[in-house]
Specification:
seven-stranded antiparallel beta sheet, binds magnesium ion, 3 domains, binds adenosine-5'-diphosphate, about 700 residues
Amino acid sequence: MSIHQEKDAARFGDWELLRRLIRYAAPHWGKFLVCVALAFVVVGADLGRTYLIKVAIDDHINGYRQPMVAADSAERLRSLGLDPLPGAPGERAYARVAPDSAVAGGLERVQLVELDGATYMVAGWLPAEQSGLKLTQLPESDGGGLAVAFTVDGKQTVLPARSVTEAEESAFQSGDYAGIWKLGGLFLAAVAGAAVLSIWQMNLLQYTGQSILYKIRDDLFRHLNRMSMSFFDRNSVGRIVVRVTQDTESLNNLFTQVIVNLLKDVLVLVGIVAVMLHMSVKLTLLTFIVLPFLAGLTFWYKMVIREAQRVARALLSRLNSFLAENLSGMRITQLFVRERQQWEQFNELNESHYRAGMRGTIINSVFQPAIGMIGNFAVALLLWYGGLRVIDGALTFGIVYAFTIYVRQFFNPLMSLAEKYSQVQAAMVGAERIFELLDEKPGMAEKAEPVRLKEPVRGEIVFENVWFAYNEGEWVLKDVSFKIRPGETTAFVGATGAGKSSIIQLINRFYDIQKGRILLDGIDIRDIALADLRKAVGIVQQDVFLFTGSIADNVRLNEEGITREDVVEAARRVHMDEFVRSLPDGYETLLGERGVTLSLGQRQLLSFARAIVFRPQVLILDEATSNIDTETELVVQKALSDISRGRTTLVVAHRLSTIQHADQIIVMHKGKVRETGSHRQLLAQEGYYYRLHQLQYKDKGIGKTLNA
Ligand SMILES: Nc1ncnc2c1ncn2[C@@H]1O[C@H](COP(=O)(O)OP(=O)(O)O)[C@@H](O)[C@H]1O
Ligand SMILES: [Mg+2]
């Protein structure tokens, strides 16, 4: 698999992933519960709002058309548990009742009807299924006079009626003003309340999601810190960065968008259907003709767009890791004038990503209006059928109005439900990658009960028949054995690739060996507590990494136990103190971004200071002086002989001149120890070392001048 490639399919079972995600979410269950409760209230307020309008229209704005009962006194109505209309005209008292209620003895059924622009009071109720309502006269046999006629199931009914003046009509409505005020207030309260609770809910959810993410990122970072070097050999920086940033973000979506809102969406859908059924079964069924198309198209749309987004996302993470890698390799890019080639690769990725994004945009531009149209079609259907039924009197205007609103409210949760599926998918892929990383064994397993090093460490190092390979089967060190006595200086020489750096990286357990033993003070280093081992062994390498921060921080590496005096003392010993004091902010001078840039020699001195400030008993220098100019090297050499006094020192050096005074020189060749001895002994042997020596002195005069 290429380093830029990202996996998309889920390997863990989804349940296993869920179980682990829940473990992260579990400490926050209380907050989730509050969010769910808030969701219930908000949904209730949202749906209730429309219903309030329906009530306002039917019971108040059009309330005077409701069936009524009339009685001789208001007390009579009250005694039957009815609410007399305030301000009704004439001697009698009236109360509005539901169309299907039973009427107690002595009460008279009446209803106000609007016909041809005038209002009439009819002595009786108009059934919902009636049609052909018209004004007529009572037959002479019944005394003549005004009447209304209508048909139910083909049978005509005639009810006596009388004309109602506009003043009387207003009087019947006088109680409705107060009712509309009350409903208006409730409506406002519902809107404001839902808004406030929504804000609360969203913030609480975000807070919870971010807390969970914080923990996951924290775990990831700690875990990465414990990974062995071979892990970083295998995984590019760019890819790891994407894991910690992008993949955790898709998880955030899961916690903040999906879990609670999924419930909310379902609540809205179920709630709307319930209210619709409560208002009118027929209209509900009519709406259901359209809804399946709406739902089908929505889910299809989401499926298509999800695929487009998935491609775009995969391209984005490739783009990201390509970018990260190129930024860290910028030096090389510019050195070898590869700008154009790198740009071409970037451009290709960038363009594919752009095309994937455009595809999504086009899909959106087609589907979104199509879905909107189906929604409008449902409204049209409602207006046509519902409007006719209102004219007939079978439905109230408020119900039809509420339906048109509810149909639209149906739309959002449907859309977001379809969206949720893809969010869950993305989160699962993200979660899988994150857990995969967390499950990666930290290569350096410590023993259950590691040996703590006894202070003071003597610093004796023994390699016993060590075999080592970075990759199985490719032996880099073959049967290497040597012994370094405490306090002595040992030099490693040999051609590039001979295995010198590998030996050094084994001593502080950046890698573990396959065969043999490495002993520090007679203890197998695999038995020693890692922290103790690494504290005892200080390594200075050729390329010095500087963190963003002050010079003092870079020496002390945020270790609390190291005081300013320690830092200054270390700097003095590596002959860096004078230079640091000449800087404007001295030891507080910032390095890295927006800070001062140090020369290679200065960086190297800083790395010496960094190594010795921790007072390691074993000091290892891997070609630490190779990229320093001759003048600085003299300073560094002096610093070196200074700091190597009293500690075991291992030096890898290209220039043989720098290691002539070593107590012991180990000559490496193709992963094996070729010769061992002091400078004098090795020269006398006239072997490999002798030849190396001859070669170097023939080429350059450095060694001679230094020796002179
Ligand atoms: N991180 C690594 N992963 C795989 N192989 C490596 C790694 N580092 C070094 N090697 C290989 O190990 C061999 C010895 O390298 P090294 O110890 O760096 O040699 P030296 O320091 O003597 O130049 C080389 O063949 C090199 O390619
Ligand atoms: Mg090396």
